[in-house]
Structures are given as C-alpha cells and as structure tokens.
Amino acid sequence: MLKQERHQIILDKLKISKKVLSGKLSEELLVSEDTIRRDLKELESKDLIYKVHGGALIKDNRVLSYDERSVADINEKKEIAEKAVKLIKDGQVIIMSGSSTNLELAKIIPPEINATVYTYSIPIAAQLSHHPSIEVIFMGGKLNKAAQVTVGIDLVNFIYNISADICFIGTEGIDISRGLTEPDWEVSHIKKSMIHASNYVAVMCISDRIMSVKRHSVVPIQKIDAIISDIDPSDPIFNDFRDFDLTII
Amino acid sequence: MLKQERHQIILDKLKISKKVLSGKLSEELLVSEDTIRRDLKELESKDLIYKVHGGALIKDNRVLSYDERSVADINEKKEIAEKAVKLIKDGQVIIMSGSSTNLELAKIIPPEINATVYTYSIPIAAQLSHHPSIEVIFMGGKLNKAAQVTVGIDLVNFIYNISADICFIGTEGIDISRGLTEPDWEVSHIKKSMIHASNYVAVMCISDRIMSVKRHSVVPIQKIDAIISDIDPSDPIFNDFRDFDLTII
DNA sequence: CACAATCACGCAAAAAAGTGCAAAATTTTT
DNA sequence: AAAAATTTTGCACTTTTTTGCGTGATTGTG
Fold first, then answer.
1. Assigned CATH class of B69-248
2. What ipTM does this complex have?
3. How far is B229 from chain A (nearest CA, A)?
4. What digits encode the pLDDT tens for the residues B232-246?
5. Order of strands across the sheet that contains A141-144
6. Does any CB of chain B come closer than 8 Å to the CB of residue A64?
7. Per-residue flag: B108 CB under 7 A of strand D
8. Could you read off the pLDDT of B142-154 as tens digits, one per residue?
9. Domain boundaries, chain A
C-alpha cells in the first residue's frame, strides 16, 4: 500500500466519522502505529487534519473543500448523469442548475464535445474548467455558501436574458398535478427562469423523489420535455406521466 | 514493446485501479523497473499522472485542484496578505481582484469581521464561503479556466454599478510615470472598473514588480491610496512614490 | 501519584529512486 | 541497403525514502 493511498483513506475516513484513532488505523491498514503517526504528522503539516493525542480530527476550514457533502444517493446520481450526457450534442448552449447530479454530469461530458455551458454553481464551473473545449459562463449573484451556488435577483435577470438549447435541472419534487416543485422559494424562481430560457427542458430526478411534492411550484408538467431518473423508463411509477408529451429516460 | 504502448497501458491501468506499482508494472510489461520509472517520470512531466514513491496514482481532477505549492512567491504573497488584512474593518464592502495574493488575504480574514466581499475569482469565493460572517457576491462572466476568474463586458458593467469602501488589487506592474499597468487588456478594464467603484484603492505588489511596466495602463499613480508590498516601507525603491499622496505599507 | 496508553527519537533494514554509462534498438540519412 | 544519429534500455552504483522496533519521555485518567 502506497503512503499516499493511506493518506487518502485517512482523509476519507475523517470526512465520514470526523475522527480517526491511531491504533484502529494501524490494524485496518496493516501497518505499524509508528507509520500511522508519521502519516498523521505529515497530513497535519499540510494543514489537512488536526492531530490530537490518540489520533486526529477533521480540519473543517480546509481550503476549497466543497467535497461531496451531497454524497447522498451518489450512485443514483451517477446513473442519471450517464443517461443525461447522451442528450448533449456538439455545439449546444446548455444551462445547468446547481444540483449535485449536474456536477456528476459535468464530470463525464466527453472531451470532444464543444459547447457553451451557463451555470451558477462553483463546483460545476470548477469541474468544467478541466474540460478542453467547453466555454463556461458563470452567472453571478449572492453566494449561498452551503450549496456553493449563487442566488438572487441579478442571477434571475441574467438567466431571463439568455437563451439556450437545453437545460438540465436537478429536481427536488415532481408530480402530475403540481408539476415541478421546490422547497426553496428563491431557487424556484431560478429554475423557472432557466426553463424560460431553454428550448428543451430535461429534469433529473432520483426515483425517491418522483411523485413527491414540495412547497413552491416551478412549472407545470407540460413545460418539461424529458425526465431522467435512475430507474427503468418502463417502471409503473411513470404511468401517469405517459399522458403527457415528454420523454422518460 | 514501444514506449508509447507502455504509456497507454499505464494510463489505462490507472483509469481502472487508480494506482500502479513500479515493481508490478515491471513484471507485467517485461521491462526493468528503471524503464518503468522513466515512463512514470515522463508521464508526470506531461501532467498525466501523480508519481509517488513506489508507483503512481491517477491525477484526480479534484474540484478546484488549486495547488498551493505551485504558486510563485507564495511566501511574499502571504506577507503582503498579513499587512493587507489590517486594512479591513468591520462592516465594509470590499472588492477583491482575482490574484493569488487576494486568495491568501481571503484565507486570513479574522472570523469576527463582518463584511461584504465582491469577487470574480472562484478560489476566493470558495475560500470565503468558509468564513462565518462574510457575505460573498460573486460577479459572473465568461470563465477564464486557467486563472479561475470570470472576465468580459458583463463583469465590467456589473462592477461599474456597485460601490465599495475598499478594493484590493493584485498588481502586475506599477511605476511612477505609467501608474498601474497590466499585461492583459481585458483585465486592465476590470481593474479600472474596480478602482472606479471603490473609495479606497489598495494595490498589493510583490517587490520584484515595483517599478516594472506592463503593456496596458489601468490608472495613474494618483488614483492609488495604498501600496502593500512584502518589503519594508522605508526601502529606497519606494523613494519616488513618496511624492504622491499614498500610503506605503 | 500511579499506571497504562500514546508519542518521539534514533537506528537499521528493506525498498525504491536517482545517476552515469554502455549496449541495444529505433529512426533518419546517405 | 548500409551507415550514422538518435533514442531507448538495462546494469552497477549510490542516495533517498519508507518502515518497524526498541527505548525512554509524555500524556491522560482515575
């Protein structure tokens, strides 16, 4: 096992359980406690952990650490992203909402795709900046620190004045009668503006949230062109949706 | 077996298992470990892998893989930041340019400071999102992937319509006759707008760049209220600056 | 204060990496 | 096709890194 592997494992463990014990790590990684201590020492010198007697604690003010706080349902989100990426065509103008599913999507856009992406999410912009041929337009506003996205009237105005081929929207709730719904009032307006600006509206929804309703309406179901989920499109949960002119993926 | 074949195999292996060991590769590819080491060295120089003692790891496109060690003159910049942070007062509205010095500054703003920061740099916004009481306004535009900042006319317009107590500007060149200068034309306009929007203009300049001139003028020396550098304010290099009404820190 | 757990330090063995050089393989030129 | 130039490779050698262990110091707990 390489030293750097151990370091990564230690950091991952810290992310999950906030603390690690030298003795336990030594057993789990099959190295002596001295080695673990040296690992912790090195990680501390890099300011990545907070070393204490007996082990180490997570260092919260890690520089630039939007790590997948939203690792919830990460596999489902990856599956959705796999399906969604097939909708992206060369030369398109794309709007991506700030959802973690969209972050997964951003990670897997093939390098040969040449497109313009509008986003208001810092992690998505950062991810796309690794892509060789995507032009990224970051839409500014007041920063929501928790979600690492911008919000506010300036953002909504900006989006109302652009136009795009397709938008990908991460979804909190979708059902037949209320359509797309959102727990956050401000975000509901942002999503509404994205849909207004786009020719084709793709919503990405993990199966748990299908047929769930949140507080604020975004748009009725008729405005949506495609629902992308992690389950089979023929699943009976979609039956009511088939009356509408939308694609289930 | 050709060198490039091996390289491709190594990269493929990394994609699958995230790590390779020199010894194992040597066995599998039937070449000496020296050759493998040379391969890894070359791949690392192309920035394709992350070489470590014993083998190599996949180069993870970490979100914001902003490597502190790769910043030039990092210690000088930290010193400048230490001086600059003293100018920040509670309740201020601050504009920060996208320089790495400003990133260092963002790291050390005391938690008790309550302020609003306008920025167009992704790393700075991400850094400030850890601060408990700073409101961050991210100013959007086209993303410059290398510098991780936004640029463009929308950004400049936005800045012209705000007003701030103080702006901190990282400096490429400053001298008496030309004032503040910039190699990049677009950035020169961004900086000009920042200065226009601010009551107090602080430029942060590592000593090497004092009295150096770049292509595009930003503002004459009279518009600047403070120069913050990594050297002593009494240093003779500043002598010519003392004729002007500005503070040398 | 006692007692166990944890840590720091030096040491030595093992593994891996860098270095210089000559042989082998490959590419380019004649 | 042969010769020359260049690149690639393996080997012997030294240096560096990593690791585990012993010893004594330090820390936390009752």
1. alpha beta
2. 0.60
3. 24
4. 888 888 888 888 899
5. A149-151, A141-144, B134-138, B115-119, B93-96, B164-170, B198-204, B226-228, B247-248
6. yes
7. no
8. 998 878 899 999 8
9. 3-58, 74-248
